[in-house]
């Protein structure tokens, strides 16, 4: 669809940026905070780049006022951040830590004082270690009640101040990384356990949405999903079918549950045949159907390209020859175990029309428009873009300059496609770029930088943690000011 003129962003559009507690806060054991699974996992030798962890991170816990001041100078309309569950309830289901409540209350008040809308993520991958030890984490239904207690505490504390809430961040990513490839906690490689845990998280998501609607009737809540559109490599109907299979497997398996309360039949039947499907009771079905999100959060980086599965199409073609044996989103080894359910459904191939980032992620701005249109047309829910950004090895030059024009180009191209999607008719609430400051990249330490603000530290030395606005900081400031 070509337009001579694009629809303007509304005046109340939430131009923002995002972060996650473990990646920025530090203060990992201060003021009563208990350890999370990431505090434990990141200390396992060989699991993270140079043994990096979030003990200090970028010290947002002690420097949040400085960070909020920079947000205000940038003109941010929204700031998406996550709450560390173990800062609120150190052991996950015991006494509430009032110092933890106070920290986020102070942060929220400071944001509101600067006319910045807080967007709170309830869970960004950091379940308390005590619950992992006590119940096996998300593999036990007992954790649902613990999650309810935590959520009720923060809804009661902040529900009158905060309108927008995200339940789970990228459930598709943290379940696969944690229970399938052991590249995230809880360090498991068992696909049946992955699907069982994923189902319990779906139940927790439904429970908390219903609880929210009881306690915060004027707010809005929804999950944040790592979405990638699926393309067939050719017009061969077998490749088109493979792309449809991949869409069901990679996207609909979660989104259908969030928005319709049901698992897609194709994938469920396939997993049952393999003996790895989750057990879903009648009560589970009732709960899943009862929960209605108010919006969908979409994290977009890129999609994937597919051809007919290798059993029916065993010949390696030109598109496959140079395709690195990694998953296009997670960048994890595609071992036989990791690919088991996919083997008969589709085969990942590289897209010959796209360039890649320094970390091998495809750069696909048009795919952003496709993603937004597909999700909105299917589920008819407002969308908040909760993540979109470029990871790069930024360099601090003389005179405290970080010339990240490549990030500006990336964001400009993606925002333009978002504006085209809005002109197409997609209802958008806001856009939270990833990320506001540089932060700890879960597995890549501090060398992979996403922020508008450079943090003066590296993988081996926290240095002075100075905040240095990059060139992209000033670009985004001017963009927000013009709303165009």
TrEMBL record:
GO CC term (a single one): cytosol
Question: What organism is this sequence from?
Answer: Companilactobacillus suantsaicola
Tell me the GO BP annotations in alphabetical order: carbohydrate catabolic process
User: What protein family does this chain belong to?
Assistant: Belongs to the glycosyl hydrolase 1 family.
Fetch the InterPro entries from UniProt.
GH, GH_1_N_CS, Glyco_hydro_1
Q: What is this protein called?
A: Glycoside hydrolase family 1 protein
Query: What does UniProt list as this organism's lineage?
Result: Bacteria, Bacillati, Bacillota, Bacilli, Lactobacillales
Keyword Hydrolase applies? yes
Instruction: Tell me yes or no: is Hydrolase among this UniProt entry's keywords.
Output: yes
Please name the GO terms that the record assigns under molecular function: beta-glucosidase activity
Keywords of this protein's UniProt record, alphabetized?
Glycosidase, Hydrolase
